[in-house]
Amino acid sequence: MSKKVIVEAVAREAGMTQAAADKVVSAVLDAVSAELAKGEKVSFPGFGTFEVRERAARTGRNPQTGAEIQIAASKSVGFKQGSKLKDRVND
User: Where would I find the beta strands (DSSP E) of 1-91?
Assistant: First the structure.
């Protein structure tokens, strides 16, 4: 599902124009991104929780040469599904 499809669904369900729905969807995504950038959790009860997870530095391997390489520590976004989402997906 793309952002365009989400915007169309929001516009249809909320009875608004696609331009207005696009602003709403963009604002929500910007707010979620800003909170994650600050290291905060973002929770949608019943749907799930987004959080920043730390990935430690580690040694990897170049698949072409087999040489060992150092992979720097980084952050990634993790998602833990809520119970209502889990139940809906498993129906």
Answer: 42-44, 48-55, 58-61, 68-71, 74-81
